[in-house]
């Protein structure tokens, strides 16, 4: 499930992942909730992701609350060009702790990193906040596609490992995987 303030790019991130395209131009806010499916091949196993795109606007919050309980994973987004969306992350985390399952997979994403001129939230700020709350973090761009597939793939890997629980396989460490892969993508210094 994708959550975060209105306008941070949740729908665009999902469209980029699903269709490999970017919705440029007019911003059409999500009404209530929407979903799309995508099947990923994770280490030879087909993982079907049903991804719920929620409305960030306050007036739809009660609709969103009802869906938290069934979510296996949450991608919490802020917009690096919008300080308020970053400042609101703590409120989102409070909401998540209140409504989501205790063991929900959670990842923090700072989106719109292509907008370098407009950036107001430094990568270090996102990293610091994520560390404070013990959640994996990466910066993304729905516009260029940076780290979009990686974010969903990391979630799919974690969910696959959780559901299969093969004793022969070493435990999957989402944090380590994200750190290693982000470094490998060449977007950010280690
Ligand atoms: N430059 C840039 N713009 C983006 C990016 N992602 C989204 N946008 C723009 O940000 C605006 C909002 O994007 P949406 O994906 O609709 O935002 P949302 O979070 O789904 O908003 P709600 O449905 O209201 O919750 C649109 O004008 C997009 O074109 C990105 O990675 N880079």
Automatic annotation (TrEMBL):
Its cofactor is Mg(2+). Signal peptide: none annotated. Its EC number is 3.6.5.2. Keywords: GTP-binding, Hydrolase, Lipoprotein, Magnesium, Metal-binding, Nucleotide-binding, Prenylation, Protein transport, Transport. GO terms for biological process: protein transport. This is small monomeric GTPase. GO terms for molecular function: G protein activity; GTP binding; metal ion binding. Gene3D superfamilies: P-loop containing nucleotide triphosphate hydrolases. It catalyses: GTP + H2O = GDP + phosphate + H(+). Belongs to the small GTPase superfamily. Rab family.
